[in-house]
Design goal:
single chain, alpha+beta, Arc Repressor Mutant, subunit A, Alpha-Beta Plaits, 3 domains, 4-stranded antiparallel β-sheet, 10 helices, 10 strands, 47% helix, globular
Length: 248
C-alpha cells in the first residue's frame, strides 16, 4: 500500500495541505455537488453524499460551505454539470498513476492532464492499462509518537484491517466505507490523526531510486494536483527519505 500512502505522507510533510486549503475546499465542494445531483440531498438515503460530507468535515470544511455545495447539487442554487473521468498513465521509472477528475470541459481537462505527463517524461495510457493494479481502500495516517499496541488496539476495535509503520507515522488501512468512522474512533482514543481518506491503493510498489525520476514524478503529481478539475491522483511509487531530503 506504500505507493499512494507515501504521497499522502509527503504532502503532509511539505505543508501542501495547509498551503492549498482553499483549492482543497473547491474540490470538496465539487464532489459534494456531484453526489447531491446524482443521488439527492438527503444524507440518510444517499450513501455517496454521506461519505462526501464526512470527507468534507475531515478536511475542516465548514457546515455552511457544505450546505451550499449540496444545495447547488440539488438544484436549489446555480451549479455546473460535471463529468467524472479517470485518466491512466505512467510517470518516469514505470510508476503507475490514476487521475480522478470532475470536469465541465472534457477537452480542457484532457489537455491539462496530458501536458502534466508529457512535460516531465510521462505518458497517458489506454483505459484499463493501469487501473487493474489498484483497489479502493481507506487510509489513515496517524502520529508515530503513539505506541504500536495503542494504535493497533484502537484501530482494530474500530473496524480497521491493519496498521504498519512508515518512518515517523503509522498508516491504518481500512475498508473505504468506514475510514471516517475509524478516524473518529482514533481521535476519541486520544490518537493524533494527520490525514484520512478513501483512496486507491496498489498492491505493486515501484521503488524510486533515481533522483531525476523522483523529481519528475513529484512534479507531475504537483502539476496535476494544481488543476481544479483533478480531484485526486493515485500512484504506486515509494521514495526513500534520503532521496526526498535531496529533492527538498
Amino acid at each position: 500500500m506504500s505507493g499512494h500512502s507515501k504521497w499522502a505522507t509527503i504532502k503532509h510533510k511539505k505543508g501542501a495541505i495547509d498551503k492549498a486549503r482553499g483549492k482543497l475546499f473547491a474540490k470538496l465542494a465539487r464532489q459534494l455537488e456531484v453526489a447531491a445531483r446524482s443521488g439527492g440531498m438527503d444524507v440518510d438515503t444517499n450513501a455517496s453524499l454521506r461519505t462526501m460530507v464526512q470527507k468534507a468535515k475531515a478536511g475542516q470544511m465548514t457546515k455552511d460551505a457544505i450546505d451550499r455545495a449540496i444545495k447547488r447539487g440539488g438544484g436549489e442554487t446555480g451549479g455546473a454539470n460535471y463529468e467524472s473521468i479517470m485518466y491512466e498513465g505512467y510517470a518516469p521509472g514505470g510508476v503507475a498513476l490514476l487521475v480522478d477528475v470532475l470536469t465541465d470541459n472534457r477537452n480542457r481537462t484532457a489537455s491539462d492532464v496530458r501536458n502534466a505527463f508529457t512535460k516531465f517524461g510521462g505518458s497517458l495510457a489506454e483505459p484499463g492499462a493501469v487501473s487493474w493494479q489498484f483497489a479502493r481502500r481507506g487510509l489513515i495516517v496517524v502520529s508515530g509518537a503513539v505506541e504500536e499496541d495503542t494504535v493497533m488496539t484502537a484501530a482494530l476495535e474500530a473496524g480497521a484491517d491493519d496498521i504498519e509503520r512508515d518512518g515517523d507515522t503509522w498508516r491504518v488501512l481500512t475498508d473505504s466505507s468506514v475510514v471516517y468512522e475509524v478516524k473518529e474512533a482514533l481521535e476519541t482514543a486520544g490518537i493524533e490523526v494527520l490525514s484520512a481518506e478513501s483512496t486507491m491503493v496498489s498492491a505493486n510498489t515501484i521503488e524510486v531510486t533515481d533522483l531525476d525520476d523522483a523529481r519528475h514524478i513529484l512534479r507531475i503529481m504537483d502539476m496535476l494536483d494544481e488543476s481544479d478539475d483533478v480531484q485526486d491522483v493515485y500512484a504506486n511509487f515509494d521514495i526513500e527519505e534520503s532521496l526526498m531530503q535531496e529533492i527538498e
